[in-house]
Amino acid sequence: MSISNIIVLCAIAFYMVIMILIGAVNSKNTKNNEDYFLGGRGLGAWTAAISAEASDMSGWLLMGLPGAFYLTGSGDIWIAIGLLIGTILNWVFVSKKLRRYTIKAENSLTIPSFFDNRFKSKGALKIVSAIIIAIFFSVYTASAFSSGAKLFATLFGNDDNYSQVYLIGLIIAAVVILVYTLLGGFKAVCTTDLIQGMLMLVAILTVPIIAYAIISGNGGFDANLAKHGVTNAASFVNPFTVNDQPIPFSNVISGLAWGLGYFGMPHILVRFMAVKSEKEIKKSGTIAIIWVSLAFVASFFIGILGRAFVTSNLTDATSETVLIRMIQQIFTDNFVLIFIGGIFLCGILAAIMSTADSQLLVTASAISEDMYKGAIKKDASEKNALMIGRVAVIVIAVIAFAIAIDPNSSIMGLVSDAWAGFGAAFGPVVLLALFWKRSNAAGAMAGMISGALTVIVWDYIPMISTADGLSTIGNATGLYSLAVGFPVALVIMVIVSLITKKPNDEIVKEFESVQTYSE
Predict the structure, then answer these.
(1) Within its chain, how far is the Cα of 145 from the centroid?
(2) What CATH topology corresponds to 3-241+270-408?
(3) Residue 229 burial by CB count (10 A; 0-12/13-18/19+): exposed, middle or buried?
(4) pLDDT (tens digit, 9 = 90+) per residue, 135-146?
């Protein structure tokens, strides 16, 4: 291993040790399920905002999305636009009301328990939503593990040993994330997310600025694009073209549809529930929207400038490493610069870890609080429930590890599947639970199941004949499954709610009290 690689490894090791120490410190304050899964509802504005967005912006923000921009130019910017709109709507319309309603609904600690308490489903919604969480978070967590493994393989591997280094990186990423998640629970995760979120932002804002300065002094942007196979720079940066051709309308709809996913993301919604007051939520929303706006702009420029800056031509398989290659090229001249580059590379690791830990924790809460304590053993002690939650973290991590073990796994593909699943299954249920008095348990169950099944059928079951054989509906149409699954679930929930029994007086009274409640 070269001296520069050793320096980078030391920077990453230092960062990982700090994360584990934070978990150890917070473990002293974790005494029950509310502490472990919701931090005692005591998050401040900055921690809640940055934690929510850091847990959202996994390796796909710093690797998957820039890789898509690197390959096709601005055509994928519609995903970023959709996500920004979704972020704003989620903070403005959902955050305050969800926090308020989860307190009123028997102090619900998890999204499944909120569904169950809101609709008085006697455990049915808890079980189904916990199963959906376990399925889709296994895939989502796999994307984070794969991101960490690709980071290590790109930094320390080569064409001959890439698969072996990828496996080592996968093991390291999984173990470190597991350790501090198991130790400290929600408080540890949110504290590390705050640090990681700020580090991510510094890294992704600094690198494209330096790259642009270097490109400008070396022939300019257009000339450097031409060196890497882009002959029409105007088309490359045009959001309405891909490969010099007009962008299909389905691409625009699919990109914007990503924003719908926010309403159903358990690891983001739980941050709203944990904020200490409604006044803090307003502050958090402003901070979060600014953070996300900067992050998406930076991610876009990383991909676009990376195409002109990175000396080697990246392929479909390696395009998701564009930010890593940029950092390697910029910070090379001396030991100090190499160490700084190593810290910036930790920004990528931060994006990966901040999402994986949140997903593992939400999965643990669903299994421990909702399945075990909520349905299997209702008289379980806090100690036993915590133990089950921690075992669940390990089990989901092992499943995610198995999914991510293929070095050719697409980060963006894994995230896309999980995002659609949660957005379609939970998004309509969350919105109608908060804003429609007539919605009921039967409708929520029907909407949840139909949304999840639509995504699974659309993305995973080949049923359309093409020249290359059978294809999934998603591949055949080019339309993102969330753009179909969300409206399907919404319509079905409304119809089933209307044709089944009205909510009883207790449910209606609780709903109305939430609308007028204030702190």
Answers:
(1) 12
(2) Sodium/glucose cotransporter (1.20.1730)
(3) exposed
(4) 888 888 888 888
